[in-house]
Write a sequence for this structure.
């Protein structure tokens, strides 16, 4: 049965928008965002055109890792509202046609979670085996420590019970032991709970850690992911798992679950993200082009999650040391902009020097690359970071709604950026009124992306643009083609493409309405502005009326 381009596989060409309830909109004037505030802004999100919201963790938490340290998986952090507020939000999102997914953080809990309190209380406590313990932990590999500014080991000695416990992240985040069937059942119960309240799936935190760091080792760790997916499929066939799997392609593909795609529905493409930054730093297409050429196709119903920035640091762990230094030199030369020796705690516009042409080009690229774009709140208006905030919190400042801030009638709990990125310079209200704003550009890109299923569903080919600074690719599906070109340089240039099978077609630029005719043999010359981009839909030549159909008098 051919049911392509239907909403059955809605994630294939979704536009996902990641936000933190805490920093989006304050609905009760206490300086902290909440579900009531978010619910008020649903029409803004629907108007932007995004189709799926990804909520960062909103569960009760001591907040020592911005909510990625959970003390109750079945409730809402009281600072953000109540379960009742969540259900009202869910209902409104559904009414506007938005799907919602949430972070699933079950690699670990907070050390203040009642399960861990029980577990550490005695070696024979029934919860002991919910976590990973050892008398003699294996030595640490310092290279592998995730937060090297705060931790130097994966193991912490628990004085009271006399054993070490495993923590892949901060020491206050003990790892759950999914080798224990009770833990696996509990995780399924958590999924079931939130799906019953309307979620369409989950962004799964730290997937390789989740299935690998257990005791005893699971004989087939991937079976656990496949079981979770099957469980979700039984409850709701349209539900998804979007995984955080930052691994080389060859190791990552197994997380989709082989050719049938029985595990993660989507995986973030950390490799092409990092290569895109190298391309931006060098003003050269090749780093990204070679990643796209090397990237395997995901299984049939699966998809890549494409992004340029997210709520964490811009991680540059998959480029060489020299390449990382190039990116640091271009986009984050000062030590305060860097983090963990491998990343940048900045947002995209500041890294691109506030050059709107370049910023617009970067997002045109993001929306035209094969996969499902995932954006982080505030990207659509070009928000900057606040380097005065600690660590990764630099990019997690409140959403800027108006020149006054507009996030909260009270003093926001987290300070907003100042200077050229302060709310009076960067905000939604102003950009709504300006036709040339970044916000309007996002709306156009999202509209066109949704109108061109070829981009997300199609077969992608990286083309020879004949120019080192220009990336050209085309996406083909069911006989329809979209050709896309991006100029990484700040000089205007013409590129000559050869589109052999599109001879005499007309290419219409979907972003400007300009048209170009492809010569009979397939050649076409495309002028590009400095940092310009074009998305070109190919239409076949008008066929002259068939002689036989002309009636002779
Ligand atoms: C990955 C999340 O993106 C990050 O923000 C968090 O600190 C770690 N996982 C631990 O949950």
């Amino acid at each position: 049965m051919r049911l392509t381009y239907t909403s059955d596989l809605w994630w294939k060409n979704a536009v996902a928008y990641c936000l933190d309830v805490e920093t989006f909109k304050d609905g009760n004037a206490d300086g902290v965002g909440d579900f009531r505030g978010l619910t008020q802004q649903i029409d803004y999100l629907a108007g932007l055109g995004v189709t799926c919201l990804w909520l960062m963790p909103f569960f009760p938490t001591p907040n020592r890792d911005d909510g990625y340290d959970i003390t109750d998986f079945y409730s809402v952090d009281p600072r953000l509202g109540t379960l009742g507020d969540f259900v009202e939000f869910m209902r409104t999102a559904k009414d506007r046609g938005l799907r919602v997914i949430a972070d699933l953080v079950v690699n670990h809990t907070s050390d203040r979670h009642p399960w861990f309190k029980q577990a550490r209380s005695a070696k024979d406590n029934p919860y002991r085996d919910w976590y990973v313990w050892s008398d003699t932990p294996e030595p640490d590999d310092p290279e592998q420590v995730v937060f090297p500014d705060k931790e130097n080991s994966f193991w912490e000695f628990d004085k009271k019970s006399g054993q070490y416990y495993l923590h892949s992240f901060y020491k206050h985040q003990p790892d759950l032991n999914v080798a224990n069937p009770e833990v696996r059942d509990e995780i399924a119960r958590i999924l079931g709970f939130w799906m019953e309240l309307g979620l369409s799936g989950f962004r799964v935190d730290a997937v390789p850690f989740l299935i690998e760091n257990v005791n005893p080792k699971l004989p087939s760790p991937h079976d656990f992911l496949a079981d979770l997916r099957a469980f979700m499929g039984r409850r709701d066939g349209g539900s998804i798992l979007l995984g955080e799997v930052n691994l080389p392609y060859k190791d990552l593909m197994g997380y989709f679950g082989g050719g049938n795609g029985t595990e993660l529905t989507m995986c973030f493409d950390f490799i092409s993200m990092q290569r895109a930054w190298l391309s931006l730093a060098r003003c050269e297409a090749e780093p990204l082009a070679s990643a796209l050429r090397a990237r395997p196709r995901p299984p049939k119903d699966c998809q890549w999650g494409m992004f340029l920035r997210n709520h964490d640091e811009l991680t540059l762990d998959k480029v060489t040391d020299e390449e990382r230094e190039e990116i640091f030199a271009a986009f984050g030369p000062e030590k305060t902009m860097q983090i963990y020796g491998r990343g940048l705690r900045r947002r995209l516009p500041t890294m691109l020097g506030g050059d709107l042409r370049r910023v617009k080009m970067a997002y045109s690229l993001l929306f035209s690359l094969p996969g499902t774009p995932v954006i982080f709140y505030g990207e659509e208006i070009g928000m900057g970071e606040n380097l005065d905030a600690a660590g990764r919190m630099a990019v997690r400042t409140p959403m800027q709604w108006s020149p006054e801030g507009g996030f909260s009638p009270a003093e926001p709990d987290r300070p907003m950026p100042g200077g050229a990125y302060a709310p009076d310079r960067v905000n939604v209200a102003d950009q709504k009124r300006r036709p040339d704003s970044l916000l309007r550009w996002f709306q156009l890109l999202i509209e066109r992306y949704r109108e061109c299923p070829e981009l997300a569903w199609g077969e992608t080919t990286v083309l020879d643009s004949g120019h080192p600074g220009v990336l050209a690719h085309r996406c083909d599906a069911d006989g329809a083609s979209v050709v896309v070109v991006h100029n990484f340089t700040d000089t205007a240039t013409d590129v000559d493409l050869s589109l052999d099978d599109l001879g005499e077609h007309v290419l219409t630029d979907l972003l400007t309405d300009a048209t170009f005719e492809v010569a009979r043999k397939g050649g076409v010359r495309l002028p590009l502005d400095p940092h310009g981009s074009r998305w070109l839909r190919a239409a076949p030549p008008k066929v002259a009326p068939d002689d036989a159909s002309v009636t002779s008098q």
